[in-house]
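Sample intake — Carbon-monoxide dehydrogenase large subunit
Collected from: Pseudonocardia parietis
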Amino acid sequence: MTTKLMGQPVQRVEDQRFLRGGGRYVDDVAAGPGTLHAAVLRSPHAHARIVDIDVSGVLDVDGVHAVYTYDDLTGPLAEPLPVLIPHPALTHGRTQYPLARDEVNHVGEAIAFVVADDRYLAEDAVDRIVVDYEVLPAVVGIDVARAAERLVHDDVPGNVGARMEQTVGDAPAAIAAAPHRLELDLEIERSACMPLEGRGTVARWDPDAGRLVLWTSTQSSTGVRAAVAAKLGLDIGRVDVITPDVGGGFGVKIVHPWPEELLVPMAARALGRPVKFTEDRREHFISSAHERGQVQHIEVGFDDDGRLLGLDVEFWHDHGAYTPYGLIVPIITSTQLLGPYKPGAYRVTFESLYTNTVIVTPYRGAGRPQGCYAMERTMDAIAEYLGRDRTEVRAANFIQPHEFPYDHGLIFQDGRALEYDSGDYPASLEKLRKLIGWHEFGAFKEQMARDGRTVGIGLACYVEGTGVGPYEGAHVHVETTGKVKVATGLTTQGQSHETAFAQIVADELGVRFSDVEVVTGDTRRMPYAVGTFASRAAVMSGSAIFKAARRTKEKALRLAADALEASVDDLEIVDGVVGVRGTDRSIPLGTLSVLSNPLRYAFDEASKAATQFSVGERDALPVAEGEEPGLEGKDFYSPEHATFASGMHAAIVETDPATAEIRILRYAVVHDCGNLINPMVVEGQIHGGVAQGVGGALYERMAYDEGGQLLNASFMDFLMPYVTEIPDGIEIDHLETPSPLNPLGIKGAGEAGVIPVSAVVAAAIEDAEGIPIRAMPISPSDLHTLREEHRS
């Protein structure tokens, strides 16, 4: 029998290609001879009116082919970019134009677009453009935005793009009546994705076919395709979008279209030459996207056991200068904040505010790290107030295993009910306590104190909505060679799709793993798809691939039953060969693929078997009613609502008494993503997420001055952790509570590692120092300042 691959740590098939330099990224695309290169003039001011743009110094430069400003845009291109996810609460949504029209609202906003023979010429030409600005006061930071003494957009009162409230019960009344009450004020600063590969786009226009081919580093090739077709006035069937290898996404590449994804194909069509744009690192800092920045106020009422009776949360979310991605991030914060707990009565209110800074879109975790930070810091504060063990307070509030499915009575980011599908939070907590040595830590802390060292322990719990809709699809095709080609429309940025998806197909179809080839992100192969984000790939595409493989298997068995003159029930597929159980009669899938396609002409020895005088009964239809030629299957998966993965992290940290340096000594993770496709891949996702979480907790912040200038817009100044700052040997244990919502029983894992890290590290530092930690990230200088304030 074929060895089952589901749940096995199969080695990644992608690695050999990447490690040997065989990756092919957008900047590697050779779109054809005569490819031109583009550069963008970007605003040096955070807020200014454009009085005049003089491009006369560019027009006669040898090697410059075109320069575009807003006045050169026509039709839909002259309109603002779309609000991708509208929402009734987004009453004052605003998006930028592909090129700034009358006003710029953050440093880095695109103003002019130059196309030249090479990038050097294009950059030189950009420097020749003269722009006359009327500089306006900038709005930087949540406090300034809330004060509303000046506005980002004149027609947006109070800088408030949206205000939203959800309630379950009467939280203020429950808090007022509770035996105990607390209030907390918390803050998390901005950070950013920072993938190794920035954004990039290449376009080629075929005037004879009237067809556009676009290569772009995106998380939604079908989304880019639809946007480009709409904005350039093309039939969507005449636009092909191909996403080659992507050097990291983490959320920043889910926005579509970026201005360059419209301007590059516009120029390629106008000039009749391929055009390429590759973003440089400073451009990525000042013109892509950030996330995280929130200020939170929490009021909570609880009983003597720490059980929540009422929770009232208000927070302010900095969404930057525009809102192309709607309210997804703050909605996730407001709903995922609850984690694995029953909150009693709950009210959450947020305002999403404009500032003259880079736009905010999802960054790995997408609002969940902020929500987890709010809830877990609250749990720690309750435990401190009552003098109780922090794990016991959490356990008192857990949703119990018998209570699933558990409906919180709220609306999640997908417009569906916030209903948890499965989980066992008490079991996860017990695993975590053993993994980190929770009950033994007191003795360890005393020993370290005798050696003059200060250590603390912290934990945090979270629930992560994964696998949001609306759908994904897949196409599975068995070649006449017996090889199996799998296409799914979502894109890949390092999630091991080529491995995990091949495991699913190999198991379901009964073929060798090495015979399965997976293609993603190519609209020519799968034109209907949504994208890769929100830990949805395994749930959505994995389920669609499973269903498509099952369809293919069913067809193969029907064909084989006819060819072998056997009952379908007596057949099995092992290593790509269909056989009759208990006999030596068999037929390879490749041969069935030949037979599935009735031919008039023979092209080779194999195809002779499918010609009209060789196959089937003379009176039978060559292609039966309801069938199609070819051994293949296509299917789609569309969920009722999201699946909800969960996890718990704990860490032991050491704080230096002299330098206030913070070192993570141990880090432990218990994670539940339902049935595991490949535990090695899941653990890799967790490791990467924890590394990003450590960056967000201890290093990464976007440092704006009051004029809206980003002061650390380079890797010289924007701190990210090296491997030496990531804890060695992250300890991981798995819990598997299958989801009932999809055929594989899986839940997502992509963002799990990053979500609770700031909350965990804050709790551990607080335990070590005895000082409340209310803002993240925290640096040694921040901790030193807190110590001085505490002493005084």
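Post-analysis note: The longest strand covers residues 454-466.
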